[in-house]
Amino acid sequence: MGGIKFRRRRRPAPPTGSTGDLLTAADIVYRGAIRMPNSSIDTTSTYGGMSGRIVGGQTHVFLYDSINASAPPNVWELDITGLSPSADYTSAPRASVVRNWGQIYGSARASWNPAGDLKDGFASNFNKVGHVCLHWSEPLQQLYWSFVDFYNVNGDPDWTVGMSTLNDSNGSSVGYGPYRFKATDRDGRTWYGHRSYFFFEHPTTGKMLTGGIAHSGDASVPFGPSCYGDADWPTTTTPGGHDAANDITLANRYLDYYCMNGSFAQSTGNYFNLDGSWNGVIRAFQFDGVLTYPVEYFPTNYPQARVDPLLNGGKGTWQGAMCSMNDAFWYEGTNKRGVLYVGTLAGGYSTDGSDPTASHTWYRNVGLGHDTCMHGFSCVQCASAGDSSTKTIPAFIVMDPDDLISNKAGDTVDYTTEAHQIIDVELTYNIRTCSQDKLQAKGLSGVWRVPGSTRFYVSANTADISRSGESFPETLIHVFDILDS
């Protein structure tokens, strides 16, 4: 049940230099978990991703610590060398601290509104501005990081990427940027920042690939996993800051899906109706198999964020801000290959609206009487207004690299791309992720594949309750291997 496959007749694949089979759930083996150190690091409200590096033969990972209202998160480097991960996370070994690098951002953690004014929140309200991704570039010896205005409902053209040089001899750092990336979708609309919240490397060129994540203001984010790229990675000589002339163009669109609710979607003629039907064509990410949900709607002016699968041949769709792919890597191995995304999907295993275990997902607004879904179920943790769900799954989405290459060439249409496989990671590998009532969505926050290796590490924030219980859950690091021999 954990591996959800599409059944389709495949076109001949264009040459890519790899003849490997596509990754499936059976090719990925779970080795166990690693816990946070017995030290002062606090990850009880950490929401960002992870990365890592090999230093003198030692395996280190980078993580953010907790956000708060008075300061941005610190970046920590942890040593996990030689640890034997445990399938029982409550007895898993603990990483040790290499260094707290602190706030490595310098003046590069900034963005401006269209009027040219420094955006409020980047310097003061750190609960509003989140950190998403960490990526260590071994060739460039730089740590890249991203930040996002989670309440950017206006779709401001944000700066989202910074870079830091780390001085191992004395623990100091220098921040560079911020950098703003420019991507153009198939409608000819240019997005600044909104397709560049996480980044990974092209497997042959090493160029920068980027993707978007969920946040408020759905019209500015992709309705599915995304990939733009082939830009050079910024370096210490790359101009940054508030000058449009410094924007970095992402020349190629490998994958994208499009907003299907709100006024912008209606202007394209492709949008969902309140009853879960649609006008035009569905341009959101679609999935079939056993992962599904009962549609939720209200007779109000709130736009529908997903399709009714019963009207779409059993296929469901991405749902606005409750679904998010938060990191990825492109793997071209000896015998296996695939682009693997990690994140969250709002879905379950029932379309029965009376089933309390189904995925009931809706826009909650107590002031308008939407405290519960249309079937009468309440979310277990949500604000007074916002996207809410009773069930989400932590997911791996495996895409076929040849599909992405074909999209880039313009031979196929990006939003018609189907996943090769969707994997419910919790169900398939019996791993521990956060409780539904803690983050409102189960999910995976970041991934780091050791360069040249089949091993990869996945961060699951607020998942570990073995030390302090549900009140102070900590990050877990899950360890996986790709069977490729």
Structure description:
With 485 residues, the protein is mainly β. The chain has a single domain, classed as Tachylectin-2, Chain A (5 Propeller), CATH 2.115.10. It contains four helices and 31 strands. It has helices at residues 262-268, 401-409, 425-429, 436-439, and strands spanning 3-5, 21-22, 28-34, 50-55, 58-64, 75-79, 96-102, 129-137, 142-149, 161-167, 172-179, 181-184, 190-192, 198-201, 208-211, 227-231, 248-249, 252-255, 271-272, 278-279, 286-287, 316-317, 324-332, 336-345, 361-365, 385-389, 393-399, 421-424, 446-449, 455-464, 474-482. β14 and β15 (208-211) form a beta hairpin. The radius of gyration is 21 Å and the shape is globular. It starts with a strand and ends with a strand.
Nutshell version of this structure?
This protein is mainly beta and 485 residues long.
